[in-house]
Amino acid sequence: MPSISLTRHLIEEQRLGHVTPDLRLLLEVVARACKRISVAVGKGALGDVLGEAGGDEASINVQGEAQKKLDVISNEILLEANAWGGHLAACASEEMEHSQQIPDAFPRGNYLLVFDPLDGSSNIDINASVGTIFSVLRCPEGVTAAEDHHFLQPGSSQVAAGYCLYGPSTMLVLTIGHGTHAFTLDREQGSFVLTKAHMRIPEQTREFAINMSNQRHWEAPTQAYVDDLLAGKDGARGKDFNMRWVAAMVGDVHRILTRGGIFIYPWDRKDPSKPGKLRLMYEANPMAMLVEQAGGAATTGRERILDIAPTSLHQRVPVFLGSKDEVDTATRYHLQHDSAAA
Ligand code: F6P
């Protein structure tokens, strides 16, 4: 069987009417940028890429987090690649306060690109997995100068979503609404090769992912749900669960797409002004689309993530995603708690 490259896969999808020529070319540009990021990440201590950006004065991003050099490098690679691509009206990045229109001097297209250039960046300095997450929306018709509010579309409007995982191998996982497919970077050839078509998440699982150090800050139904996971065979669930935490959402979601599980970043009381840690547009929406396209589910513990109407570019939400039956169970704990309290 000859191997199927990302390019060939997308051309076949175009023939089937699943993707427009413009979206296909835009995804190729994003994939090319991810290859460049993969090279930068792979240099590690041999390149001048580790540590914090900004030298002595740490540079702080719009999320209030210290930026790593690789956050900044990855953001620049994605911006630069897409400025010249000709398929975008504007892009928005987790690292930038506002969206950026494609400058007048450059060719413009009809899509909006949203990205987290380097997710899980606390893993950079320990040589563990990190990744790029992206989402593509249509620019509303008739809009010639896209602004932040044009991006505020529910996740169900995404026309494509994906991530690139920089781990022992570099993998691009992509959906254009017709299944979730995984491509592995062939470093010698420089091309992404289809290695798993139509990923499927088992509906049931015995594995969960959550940062347990926040346990005391969670709300009651999250506590009750996780208590029952921990009670294992001796508790209400009647089976033992294992726990894993990569501390980079791309790594945890990749494991779940590969062998099932539930990933949780719930609302917590540590900072009551933040309804969760993860960002709706840059993390929750693209991952929810990938997971649903692989037969899984994604909620906030109460509602489907892809149904949320965003109110701001950097909005945060609680996230429960992965194996369908397990996400449904976790959601039930929260909804039953709410109706008992009502
Ligand atoms: O974007 C935030 C992120 O790095 C995710 O990739 C990851 O799942 C999470 O934060 C890790 O959070 P914590 O540091 O609380 O474990």
Quick take:
This protein is of the alpha+beta class. It is 30% helix and 21% strand. The chain folds into two domains: 6-196, Fructose-1,6-Bisphosphatase, Chain A, domain 1 (2-Layer Sandwich); 207-341, D-Maltodextrin-Binding Protein, domain 2, CATH 3.40.190.80.
Topology, element by element:
Elements: H1 6-15, H2 21-43, H3 69-83, E1 88-93, E2 100-101, E3 111-119, E4 130-138, E5 160-166, E6 170-175, E7 180-186, E8 191-196, E9 207-209, H4 220-231, E10 242-243, H5 249-259, E11 262-265, E12 278-279, H6 280-293, E13 297-299, E14 316-317, E15 319-322, H7 324-341
Parallel strand pairs: 1-3, 9-10, 9-11
Antiparallel strand pairs: 1-2, 3-4, 4-5, 5-6, 6-7, 7-8, 11-15, 12-14, 13-15
Helix pairs in contact: 2-3, 4-7
Residues 119-120, 211, 247-249, 277-278 line the site of 6-O-phosphono-beta-D-fructofuranose (F6P).
Domain Fructose-1-6-bisphosphatase class I N-terminal: 5-196
Protein name: Fructose-1,6-bisphosphatase class 1
Pfam families: FBPase, FBPase_C
**H/I helix tally:** 7
By CATH, the architecture of the largest domain is named 2-Layer Sandwich
Distance between the termini: 59 Å
- Mean pLDDT over all positions: 93
Bound molecules: 6-O-phosphono-beta-D-fructofuranose
CATH superfamily of the largest domain: Fructose-1,6-Bisphosphatase, subunit A, domain 1
